# Entry
Amino acid sequence: MPCPKLKDFLDRNEIKYELIHHPTTYTAQLTAASSHVALEELAKTVMVNRDGKLAMAVVPASKRVDITALHTACGASSMRLASELEFKQQFPDCDAGAMPPFGNLYGMEVFVDEALTHDKRIAFNAGSHDELVRLAYADFECLVQPKVLRFAVAAEHAPRIRVDDRIW
# Structure
């Protein structure tokens, strides 16, 4: 079952969505493989700190966030990846690192890489490490109203950044 806040929001807005159960995974690549979802369709939520406030950067699982490109594209004074300690408490109904890209439900901005806008459907963590929600990208865009920018790069070309002993 998706996190209650997300499920209630989707149901209230009469959004058609599919739940995809899969074995517990902790990386986007393993999640895509175990759920039989294309990497390009799986939306990965990366938490950033923009000018001292938490925000979500959402990219296809096949890509990485280029923090410099995001910083420039959104016109921030400062931008960095957020640590898990910074954002864990913001999502009490979600497993750490499995939050859905619905920042509007948590009072934060959402930036989406333009590559995701080309997908008819996207899938994303439903608040746990063993379930995805898949819905039409158009419904996601209507509900969340993210800022669409170009800030993702192919995973092999992205600079690797260490945060909380994880490499992004």
Observations:
- The two ends are 28 Å apart (CA to CA).
- The chain is about 20% helix and 35% strand.
- Residues 145 and 158 are 26 Å apart (CA to CA).
- The longest helix spans residues 4-12.
